[in-house]
Amino acid sequence: MLKPQPIVILMADDDEDDILLTQKALQKGKLLNTLYSVKDGEELLDYLLLRGDFTDPTSAPRPGIILLDLNMPKKDGREALREIKAHADLQDIPIVVFTTSKAEEDIYRSYKLGVNSFITKPVTFENMIEVMRALGKYWFEIVTLPAENKRGTHADALSNENSPH
Length: 165
Known about the structure:
five-stranded parallel beta sheet; alpha/beta; Rossmann fold; 5 strands
């Protein structure tokens, strides 16, 4: 089996404690992935599209996977998920809903919108470590993800369409 390569994880969650616990659980689970975080759906889209505070691709690298909370201020996870899956340059990024919700409607709607997995956040730190280990094993060792492609923007796509072939 190939040695897993570190992958950039982007976590969209407005709860700083959850972000910190996730970071600690990744470390405790000995996962070498880098965790970046944003606090709402608007920041998530800005990060992914290199807008606003995230115009530098070196400080906002394309994620290999997104951990998405559904209940966030400004733009919630459902709206962000819908926009990401509708965007040609972003739709191939795997998204795992990582939320406190256990509502059947949230689960159903998330899968309908194109989420790759739905995980209810564990209550204890020990369970969080186990979830991160399982997530790491599945997404970073078992699954083959698309190769990191060059980040394109809508403007890039338009200029490519208008260039002579």
